Amino acid sequence: MIEAHHINFDGVCTQILLRDLEAFYTRRAHLTLSPAAKQYSSFIALQREDETTGAWDGDLAFWRREFATIPEPLPLTRARVAARKPLLRYDVHRLDFRLDPSLAERVRAVVRQHRVTAFHFYLAAFRVVLQRFLSLGVRDGRQSGGKETAAADDDSDICIGIAESNRHDEETLGSLGPYLNLLALRFRDRPATFASALASARDKTFAALGHAAVPFDAVLRALRVHRDMSHAPLFQAFLDYRLGFPKQQPFADCTLEVLRFEPGRTAYDLSVDVIDNPLYNDASAPGGKGGGDALLSVFGQAALYEQDDVRIFAACFEDVIREFAEEPSRSLSVGLGSEWSYRDADVAKALELSRGPAYETQWPGTLAHRLDDMVAAHADKVAVKLAAAGGNGGSLTYKQLDDKTNAIAAALMENGVSRGRYVAVHQEPTPDWICSMLAILKIGAVYVPLDPGTPAARLAMVVATCHPAALLVDRTTGPSCAFEVPTAIDVSTVPVSNVRRIQTVPDAHEPAIALHTSGATGTPKVIVLTHANFAHEIETSANTYGLDSNVTVLQQSAFGFDMSVLQTLLALALGGTLVMVPRELRGDAVAMTEFIVSHKVTYTCATPTEYSSWLRHGDCAALRRSHWTVALSGGEAVSHSLPDGLREHLGAKSDMRMFNGYGPAKTTCCSASTELALRGGASKLPATTPAGPACPTECVYILDEEMRPLPLGHPGEICIAGVAVANGYLGNEALTSRAFVRDSFATEEYIRKGWSTMFRTGDRGRLLPDGSLVLEGRIGDDTQIKIRGVRIDLRDIEQTIVQASGCAIAKAVAVARTTSNSSAAEGTSDSQFIVGYVVLDAGFLKHQLLEGPTGATSSEQAYLAHLLAGLPLPRTICPSMLISIDKVPLTTSGKMDRRALAALPLDRSSSTAARRQIEQTEPLTDMELRTQAIWELVLDFQGHHFNDPQESAPVVTSDTDFFHVGGTSMLLLELRERIKRQLRLSVPLMQLFEHSTLGAMATLLAEQEAKARADIEWESEATPSDELRTLAQTVLLRSIMPGSFPRAERDQDGGAHRGIGYSRTTGAQPPPGRSEDR
Questions:
Q1: I need a labelling partner for 378 at 20 to 30 A (CA). Which of 145, 534, 831, 1025 fits?
Q2: Model confidence pLDDT, tens digit, residues 493-551
């Protein structure tokens, strides 16, 4: 076994070592080292000379042109995580596959035909696989119609690392050492065919090799690449290629057989190692020849991918090789488009688990007809009651509910409302609202809820979209209602005596309910759902949750929220009781728990935020004794804190069950659901719990950007099909055609029943091996979020701020922040809030802001406070504060950097503080000066000092990065040793890496120093320990008898260096009493 660390032993060293070992065995008495061999230290000295004399200037200019902008890290399109975290260890999953000699020979034939090398073929294939696997450049290839273009859009920009032996003369060919250099190949073209991709791979490789004299670390310093613990710098995909050798070969008088080769583990997301084996003589093989194949090893970072992901990536790689070895002229726009897919077995398994179980309905076609049955069966039972503080605010039996429903239905028909027309309801949440809703459904009209808690301006937009034929109000909302409708009916005055019974007329496939989205600006989008949509949802929900006519449902959600429809219809369609909460108490957690207890509520449907509030502020002791048995959570992602909270606060309630449901309003409430475990110890759920498998007669697909099914475990867009999909957006055909598309995977049964539409949710998720759905946020960027159950797009809020300001604000950026005492990862409570950062227009600042007694800043704040108070946004998504900044920070790619804004302090001085950091007008602190001095020693500026105008060393400020003034990962190790010796502080290497600027590192060291002082027990320190006495005696003896003890070597500045070392062999141990790390 040959074992060596890859940091000082590259692949070529193996061959050199084996060659020299064989020579030693065969010619032991005559073996001498080659006089031409150069020591690695001499090679490094020459490199330093080239750097100081400017020999690299031309090469560095090339790299600066190639990387005028720094590419973004590879997207995590198919990763198991949505965001990167620091890599604490380099752990990888590996899969090997072998190309048989016939396929490998076809590759060589293509190579000869196109005048490239086999390395270029595998590089081009690797690029195509990455583009397919990560969906890079797919959109561009489709838009360009297959023609080659030179534009360099972000999603077609890909950087791949390769290794170069860096041995170009006889002196280095026989030398051991880490000569290997890394080169970054940046591809931004869009080749039309694989043959063009081959040419691109060849040209990029030759260009990079022409400027390979500069070490990779020097390139990173010249480009000022920011180091990040979460990924490798500059490129996160790596290809290594080398020619193999016979599996068995002579070694002295023995036979050497390579059993396994284990490459060093690295930080790359995805990497491929190719060993191209030549033909060799083998008497035991058919035809007397062996080899001729190729072994490919695929590696995936374990922090991002699982073993099955690596298997699928390897399968894609093999498929690409076969595809283009057969037809190198094949179009890449097809290869990246819709005519390729993952392997059939993987796709078929994913589709099978995407489909919910079959379900045959037992109810009438519409809930309006079902309610007629409930009235007949439960005429004298309380159907709806209004909860009130300290008692009952009124109630209706099923008979009374039916009478009032028929009275309102008759009034609508008398005012010309016919089947299919839209009718809006704008009332306080009382039983009259429920009667109004049921009356609309009964006559075949479409119910449009206009909740009084929503700003009137937004409701007016909904009215303008729906053009309701009538508006149903009550004595509270009627006088102030200003919506433009043909007829307004005050249901408070509709007589109930001598009411005639109205026939229930709707058909299952007719529109029933129109809900509007919670978009923050523009015209709200109105979603139209059918009677069949909700009939299916209610019937299957009753079966899933085990509900019957004994159910009592809490109705606390706003009527514009689809949860309100589920709460209402679930109670009444089962013959249960609906408990309505007055609007003024709907946000009162204490009142909610009191109502659950006093009204014997058995079922609730609420957001995780609501549940957390109830448990935190409500009477949990009373809840444990209540009739509450079923809780459905929806509207937000559920973290482990919710089931853990229920377990903690209601642990003694053995009959309690909780379900997690997922589904946008466009697919009628829940499209996937699962029961959460509430028994036993603390949950081991991930940050976001699975939402369960697809509900009956629904499908939850995970598709890529080309609407192709993804294998299990691969994240993509969640698309929902089946019985519950809405008809689309009212009055918006363009948006409907984009979001509601044909279900290409519908079964014959689904097509026969008319369930052939699929809704693109825009949510990102993946399916677990059991078909359970895991949510991972929104597709695209981080601008679409949910706060307190409301989905918003931060860009909409930004647009509202700019529009409301007139010409005063040039740019606005909205950022979601989290309170300091809450975990941002939770994402399920009201700990999040919106902060708006604004750039005031220069002309506005000059001509319109008035100087106040405290200067312009107070005038800016007064104006922003006035603007904030008048923003036409719902309270739940209105920014908590507006902060003026001088300019919007940008990423290295020139994009707006929301993360930088999210890290700013929440005060007005944040922008000026940022400017001071750049200008560095304040002197360095004492610890910054001490840290700077250690940097100078480690970076070896040969006696020069930072910030001296007479010297050549760099100028540093608090923001100067160690890696931008000559620091490397190797020097960081030395820096840690210097800090340990000079400051007597032992700092983990990772912390130094994460605090690589002078200011951050000095702050870290100051904190460590203060902690070290606090930890010292000064009383015990006053008495010398036995170890200290022994050390003193040793020093005395050394001074009396020099030479009796091994001396540690000294480095140039007098610090102790490792002077005693040991070779590690099997069974060998250091001598007793000596440390391996002296």
A1: 534
A2: 999 988 889 999 999 999 999 999 865 445 789 999 999 999 999 999 999 999 999 99
Asked if 474 contacts 559 with a C-beta cutoff of 8 angstroms, the reply is no
The answer to whether residues 500 and 442 touch, using CB atoms and an 8 Å cutoff, is no
**Distance between CA atoms of residues 977 and 966, nearest Å:** 17
Domain termination site, one of 883, 918, 953: 918
Strand partners, 527: 515, 729
Angle value at C-alpha 174, between 172 and 179, nearest 5 degrees: 45
CB distance 665 to 635 below 8 Å: no
Q: CB atoms < 10 A from the CB of 568, how many? A: 23
Q: Which residues contact 235 (CB under 8 A, 6 or more apart)?
A: 71, 159, 160, 161, 184, 268
Q: Is residue 843 very low, low, confident or very high in pLDDT (cuts 50, 70, 90)?
A: low
Is 953 in contact with 941 (CB distance < 8 Å)? yes
Is position 335 within any domain? Answer: yes
DSSP letter at 952 equals S
Rounded mean pLDDT, 990-1003: 87
Question: Rounded CA gap, 414 and 819, in Å?
Answer: 54
Residue ranges with strand state E in 482-575? 488-490, 511-516, 526-530, 552-555
Count other C-beta atoms under 10 Å from residue 994's C-beta.
15
Whether residue 530 is contained in a domain is answered as: no
Q: Are strands 181-187 and 158-164 parallel, antiparallel or unpaired?
A: antiparallel
What does the block give as tokens for 1001?
């590192």
Alpha carbon distance 388, 125 (integer Å):
69
Distance, CA of 580 to CA of 431 (rounded, Å): 8
> Could you tell me if 310 and 334 are in contact, meaning their C-beta atoms sit under 8 angstroms apart?
no
The identity of residue 240, as a single letter, is D
CA distances from 532 to 77, 315, 513, 537, 754 (A): 36, 43, 11, 8, 11
Total of domains in the chain: 2
Q: Residue 812's domain is classified under what CATH number?
A: 3.30.300.30
Q: What is the DSSP letter of 193?
A: B
SS (H, E, C) 136-156: CCHHHHHHCCCCCECCCCHHH
The number of beta carbons lying within 10 Å of the beta carbon of residue 969 is 12
CA distance 561 to 977: 60
Residue pair 519/529 in contact by the 8 Å Cβ criterion: no
8 A C-beta contact, residue 976 and residue 992: yes
Long-range contacts of 344-347 (CB under 8 A, 24+ apart): 346/312, 346/315, 346/711, 346/712, 347/708, 347/709, 347/711
Using DSSP's 3-state secondary structure scheme, residue 996 falls into coil
Greatest mean pLDDT range, 275-279, 328-332, 697-701: 697-701
Bridge partners for 700 per DSSP? 720
pLDDT for the residue 320: 94
Nearest-angstrom CA–CA distance, 292 and 313: 24
CB proximity list for 945: less than 8 A, separation 6 or greater: 936, 951, 953
Within 13 Å of residue 154, how many CA atoms lie on the same side as its CB? Answer: 13
Rounded Cα distance between 724 and 695, Å, is: 10
Domain finish residue from 867, 889, 918:
918
**How many C-beta neighbours within 10 Å does residue 256 have?**
15
Beta strands, E only, 779-892? 784-787, 790-793, 809-818, 832-840, 881-884
Q: Is 200 inside a domain boundary?
A: yes
Helices 608-617/641-649 angle, 10° precision: 30
- Measured CA to CA, the distance from residue 214 to residue 675 in angstroms comes to 59
Q: Which of 71-80, 774-783, 918-927 has the lowest mean pLDDT?
A: 918-927
Amino acid at 412: L
**CATH code, domain carrying 269:** 3.30.559.30
Distance, in Å, from the CA atom of 100 to the CA atom of 102, rounded to the nearest integer, reads: 6
Residues spanned by the domain of 893? 781-918
| Inter-axis angle of helices 562-573 and 531-545, nearest 10 | 70
Determine how β-strand 422-426 pairs with β-strand 446-449: parallel
